[in-house]
Structures are given as C-alpha cells and as structure tokens.
Amino acid sequence: MGKKLTDYYYSLSINKKITLSFMLALSVLIILLAVIAFRISSGILIGKAIENTAQNLKLVSEKLEIIFDNAENYSKIAITNNTIQDVIGAPQSTNELENYNKYYATQESLRNIVDSKTFVDSLILYDLHDNIYDSGNLGNIRNVSDIYFKKFANSMYGVEWQNTHESNYLKGNDSRNVISLFQKFNSSKTGVPLGLLQLSIDERYIANQFSNIDIGTSGNIFIVNKNGIVASDTRKDKLYTSISNYDYFPWALDNEGGKVFRMDGQDYLVVSRSYPRFDWVIIGTVPIYEITKDNQVLTEKFIGIGALFVLAAVILTILISKSITRPLNVIKETVRDVQEGNLDVKLNIKSRDEIGALAKEFNKMVGNTKLLMNNIIEEQRQKREYELAVMQSQINPHFLYNTLESICGLADLKRNADVVKIVNQLAQFYRGVLSKGSAIITVEDEIVITQTYLEILKIRYGDQMTYAMDIDPVVFHYNTIKLLLQPIVENSIYHGLKNKRGKGHIDIAGRIVEDRLILSVSDNGVGIPKEKLETIFNPQDTNQDKNKNTGGFGLKVTDERIKLYFGQEYGLEIRSVYGEGMTVTIALPTIDKGGNAE
C-alpha cells in the first residue's frame, strides 16, 4: 500500500505535487495547532477550575470552623447556666412536683439556648442519676451517657465530637443524621461531676454550607472521613457510603489541590482540602468535559475556519503552481527538441529567478555544445583526449546494460529486496561517477565507486564472488582519475573469475611507497597467457577489438588515461601466472585534493 502511494505521488506532475503537498502540510499544521491550542487552553481552564474550587472548599472549611467553634461555645454556656447548675447540683428529691419543676426549669434553659441558634438541632443533658433533660420536641431519647462517663472518668473537662451518625432521639417523629458534641460538666461551686451534655447539629445544616456552591452542572462537593466514609453530602443517598475504592481517595488523604482522575469511563477533576478538626477531607469533583465544553466549541469553530483556509489555500496554490510550472513545461519541450537533435532552439524565459537562471545556463550549454560539435580540434592531445573519453563512455553502458538485465532477472524471480538493493547501489554508483563533473577525484571517492560496483556484482553473482580491501587511510585524500579501479576490477571479473571454476576473490590494496601512490588489484582467476600479456600495452597494436576480446581493452584505456593526466612515468603494471590469477599495480603521483604535489 505504501509503495503504491509512493509510486502514485512520483507519477504526479509538479503542479499536482505542489498542490497536494501544500494541502496536506497545511491541514496537518492546522490540526496540530488546534490540538495544541485545545490542550493549552484546557490546561488553563482546568488550572482556573482548581483555583476556584480550592477557594470554595476553603470557604466551606472556614464556615465549618465557625459552626463548630460556636457549638463548643454554646455548650459551655449551657453547662455554666445558673439554673442548670442549681437544678442538676441540687440533691435528689422524692417530691414529684419538685422534680417536675426542676425538669421544666432545665428544659426551658436548654430551649432558650437552642431557639436562638439555628444550627443547633438539640441539646440533651444527662445527670448522674440517669435523668435526661432535653431542649424540647424530642422523643425516644436513648441514653448514651455511660460510654462517655467512662471515657471522661479521669478527665476534669472531657470534650469529644462524634462523627456523622444516626441520632439517638426522634424530633417531630423523625430520626436524622447528626454530628454531636459530648462534654462533661462539673459543679461551678464544688467542681464535682454533675453530668454530660450532648449538643447535636443536623448533617443537613452542614451540607447546606456548600449546597449552593456551583462547580458545574454535574459537579459535587462532599465530606468524607479518614476511612473514606461520606460524612456529609447534598445527595443523601451517598451518606455513609464508601469512596475508599476510588483511585483518588489515597491521593486526597495526603494532598491538597487538584488532579485529574479517570472515573466511570470519563475524566474528572478532583479537588481536595483537609479539615483536621474531624480528620475530614472536603472533596469537590467535576467532569472535565464541563470545564472544557466551551473550549471544545471554540476548537470546532477553529477547525471549521481552518478548513475554509485550506480550501482557499489550495485554490491559490493551484494558481501559483501553474505560474511556476509553466516555464518548466517550456523547458521540458525545449529539452525534448534538443534530445531529438535540434540545437537551434532557444529558451525565451524572462523571469530572473532560479528557472530564469536555468534557462540562461541551458541556452549557454546548447550554444557551447553546438560550438564544440562544429569546431575541429587541431591539437593531437585534444583529439586523443576526446577519443579516450569515448572509450571511457563505452565502459558505463556495458555495465549498465548488464545491471539492468540482472534487475530484470531478479524481478522475474520475485527477489524484490535484491531489486531494491541493486537499484539503490546503481544509483549510488552513478552519483559517484557523475558527481561534480570532474575527471579528477580523491582516492576515497574512487574506492566508494568501486565498492558500490562490487556490491552490485555480489548481488548478481551471490557467493560465487568475494572481495577484500586493504587501503591505508592516509591515501584517501590524494587525487586520482575517475573510474580508475572499476575497469580493472571489471576486467578481473569478466576475463579472470568468470572462466574460473569455484569461488572467485579480488583483493584491492593501497599504500604510499617511495613518494608514490600505489594501488593494486589482485584476483585468483585464470590469468592471462604470456603471449597475450605482452600485447596489451603494445603501442603498435591498434586493433582494439582484438585487445577487447583478450581482456586488455579496459586496461589499455586506463593506462593511457593515467599517462594523459599525470605523465608517462605513471601507469599500470600487470603480473600474471596463467591459471593462477593476475595482479594489476597502479602507480600515481601523490597529489592531494588541493592540487599540491607532495
């Protein structure tokens, strides 16, 4: 699938490539911008939500503190009330009327305290004689004083809050959930214990402190104790339920602030604040989508506007790309005319950009080509250089034809991986051969060209051919002629190894010997007979086809090219034992890539 898309893309015109590429790039950028903007703005909104919710939880905490402080103050008022002190502190009487009056006086005192304090649901007083006094309108009061008399036995002033629980009394025939304060009280005159006071606050009053706080349509604020049991909640069905199995509970116990958690298939913002007085944790939860819903609408509009921009950009890109590619089409048609042999053409492009510069250089190239073709080269060296260039050009097509045939063969065998590898190696080979257009390159570049050539042949011949290179790195920066080693290696393969039974092997070495650059190519092929070896460099032998058939064509051309560029004292030396192999030694001057002789 990927290859088909790649092939389709490469088959498109430049105009369509520019349009498609720009459309895809702009679409991706707009989507990325929308995603990044959404994430940044969502982060800001969540941060603001954490800050606002934390402020609300702080307000709840402060309200609770005032309520419970007042409750303790009113408890002290009740136990220090003179009437209560006198009635409870008086000796037990057997007179029922006296006892009734005492009960009535105590109840009135308690009622007066409760009636003026809306947050106090009830006041209950237990004396040491199992008498119970209440603030009125209470029924079925269950005596729980024994528990706290035991707890406060060794304490002068015992005070304890009881977490949310079901009331031990009925009020208006209904039970309720309350938070109770139990306080031991003593005689203000003698200090002896007189009894126990219970002040209860309706849980609904606690919940009302945060019921009107808006943290989102689906957001909730509630209070849990250290065991994860809900102590107060506006949703009464949640009271006494446990949240200890939720992931956020351990975090809420030990941290204050906000964090996002996954619950019931969606993300929630959880904000917590501790309330040490009761070991409570005040928690606010709100779905993330409620916090970011306005941001989502903005993002959708942004993407819609971005789509319109993409459409407008595509239209503009089509118009612009047509104006850019129109001169390229003119160049294409002109090149086709030149390819067909018409050298009288000329590009008339008025633009001064890169395409205009290309057209100008093309016109120069065509003019120079025409001039070179019409001029007669007078000097013999120039004529011989041209002939050698023609000879050199014969090497590359021969190799290319063979490689293309190999590619066809590999394709027929469905060896796609080898086809890809050999095509890549062929491209790398010709990049090395054609790069920079100079006939003089460094030894390092020549080694790369030769190694690429050998790798292509290894794909063709498999394990039937191996090679090794032993090149001293110091020689890499010296100059040599392009395609120096390749014709020699080719000669070794086609005229040495090809006719050999078994595996063939080539060694390529490079050293500096007595201020000369010495390269050598050795093979274990069939070698060259002595009588044919003597004719390879025979200057009287002009029969090139004969030398070509004996394997000397490429060697002779290479030797003449070396002498042409570097002088007669340099060139090739061939040693061969027929049936055992051949070694070609190349002698070159030590000229570095800056052109300086060493």
Summarize model confidence as the mean pLDDT: 83
Count of β-strands: 19
Q: Radius of gyration, Cα only, in angstroms?
A: 51 Å
Would you tell me the structural class of the helices and strands?
alpha+beta
Number of helical stretches of at least 4 residues: 16
> What is the H level of CATH, i.e. the homologous superfamily of the largest domain?
PAS domain
Counted up, domains total 2
Main sheet specs: 5 strands, antiparallel
CATH architecture of the largest domain: 2-Layer Sandwich
Low-confidence parts, pLDDT < 50 over ≥5 residues?
Answer: 541-550
- The termini sit apart by 56 Å
- Strand order within the widest sheet? 2-1-7-6-4
CATH topology group of the largest domain: Beta-Lactamase
> Helical proportion?
40-55%
Q: Tell me the fraction of residues in β-strands, as a range.
A: 15-25%
Shape: elongated
Q: What is the level 1 CATH name of the largest domain?
A: Alpha Beta
Produce the secondary structure layout:
Elements: H1 2-11, H2 14-79, H3 82-89, H4 96-115, E1 122-127, E2 132-134, E3 138-139, H5 145-151, E4 159-166, E5 170-171, E6 177-186, E7 193-202, H6 203-211, E8 220-224, E9 230-233, H7 248-254, E10 257-263, E11 266-275, E12 280-287, H8 288-339, H9 354-374, H10 380-412, H11 416-434, E13 440-442, H12 443-461, E14 465-471, E15 479-481, H13 485-497, E16 504-513, E17 516-523, H14 530-533, H15 544-550, H16 553-566, E18 571-577, E19 581-589
Parallel strand pairs: 14-16
Antiparallel strand pairs: 1-2, 1-7, 3-5, 4-6, 6-7, 8-9, 8-12, 10-11, 11-12, 13-15, 16-17, 17-19, 18-19
Helix pairs in contact: 2-8, 3-4, 10-11, 10-16, 11-12
Catalytic activity: ATP + protein L-histidine = ADP + protein N-phospho-L-histidine
Enzyme class: transferase
EC number: 2.7.13.3
